[in-house]
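Is magnesium ion placement plausible here? Inputs below.
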Amino acid sequence: MPLGDFLVAYLQKLGVTHLFGIPGDLVMRLFLRFGRPRGLHIVTMSHEPGVGFAADGYARATGRIGVVCVTYGAGGHNMVNPVAGSFSERVPILVISGGPGEEERRLGTLIHHQAKEVESQLHIYRELTCDARVIDKPAIAAEEIDAVVHAMWADRRPGYIEIHRDMVERVIPVPERLIDWNGRLPERRSDPRKLREAVRETAARLNRARAPVIIAGIECHRYRLTRELLQLIERSGAPCATTVLAKGAIPIDHPSHMGVYIGAISPPAIRKRVDRADVVLNLGTLLTDMNLMMRAPTFRLEDAISAVDDRVEVSFHQYDNVTLRDFVGALARAKLKRHRERVTYADNLKPQSRGIDRAIRVSDVLWEVNRFLRGRRDMIFVAESGDALFAGLDVRVEGPAGYFAQGLYASMGFGVPGAIGAQIGTGRRPLVLCGDGAFQMTGPEIAQAPRHGTNPIVLVLNNAGWGIFRPIADRKDLLDLPAWPYAELGGLWGGWGARVETVADLRDALAEAGERETFAVVEAMIDPDDHSPVARKYIAASLRKGQRK
Ligand SMILES: Cc1ncc(C[n+]2csc(CCOP(=O)(O)OP(=O)(O)O)c2C)c(N)n1
Ligand SMILES: [Mg+2]
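Reply from A.M.:
I modeled the complex. Tokens:
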């Protein structure tokens, strides 16, 4: 069949429902192919970064592959930043790019949209994906596309295929295997002997421990292991926390959930409990500066058991070829002594000050967001980069797997389009917490929301600048932003907007946004020098660190 038709059929078999993209002449033939068949919706946005973040949000929220389709060069290069974020945070995004046909390449002239070499874009994407290929050999085209997708799924990382415009109609052979395939992608398998031994050793240590702790990391989220994880937590009785990156992997109201572990600046109850642990079971945790907030892990490595990247380390014993899925599943079924401990969920919020007819502090925003989200188990929450990323750690979303943020890559611009993608994928309405600076990057994509049947509530924290850097910058004037009429723009773009200056008005505006069918932009005016509780601790810690150097 023609390569273009094969790709459409392949994606449909995979269960892909949406494709995110912006066309251009070098990808038009392919792009229109996606538009034609029923069952594959095309989601276009204003700018490729928005497209990329939306596909990432879709993939994070659904656990499926996100697919983007862009034109070569100008489009592909514009997509680099979101895909880098997906790579960093283990989100499987398939980038499909067009490209110049063979005749054009043979002319020997520069081709429009070309940067350094025709292959430059491929080289760039090799850095940002687990597999990147130009699909230019008809005989093995189907196998190559299948290989990229399998690699992406095994790694939960982006993949890249470039299909030049003269290849779209080329007839390619499709192997029987793919015709008979049921569309399911296999998970990586463990070596059963190593798995058994790693589980036996871990169970023995857990059973000897007096104060074990479980820390759930990002891989629990990406491999969708919440069910197995909860079984393990319940069987072992150990208190658990998530890392910054994995917030949402454990339901907020689970009785063993302590909260978010942020190293030295964790809520004191969590820090003390982790420091006191005689076994720390790290499940799928990438050790990052954001997770630990610039401090080496407090627990001793000899007391740690860690499962990440298909490898289990029990103290200084290492077992490779043991996947997190198999490990958590088998451990949950092992004979475990049940530990008993009362756990209360801890965050960083101090009690809200009295009175609501007063100026809004960031901590008020969090109290009001939590009040608004209470009982709305269908809603999801998305935190932008900037103070919203720190602030979001104190947000309580009650429904399952309802929290999304770029906790490690931390690119501004993820919030609004990421939320649109997440709603497209799950049907759940997002509340986005977003700084004014981040809104100026991709917030206008909100104008696309109604076309795609979505209606996020965007809460813009308007502190008139890149506020997170004010405490550490001498030239504060360099951090100022022009005042956009955010709330008015929300109304002009087809939604509803409100600008609020008091806590009472914020409460009312959120309630009204919750009632409305359209998207909403709630602009909360914030003192330029105010920050969230976690940001304040983070800034104080980095200033101390800076002084020590
Ligand atoms: C794409 C991108 N560019 C630059 C940065 C660096 N950066 C991190 S936070 C920030 C300022 C964010 O401003 P705003 O959205 O208004 O949030 P606030 O700091 O005021 O809370 C900047 C510029 C980034 N994270 N991502
Ligand atoms: Mg700001």
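Short version: The mean pLDDT is 94.
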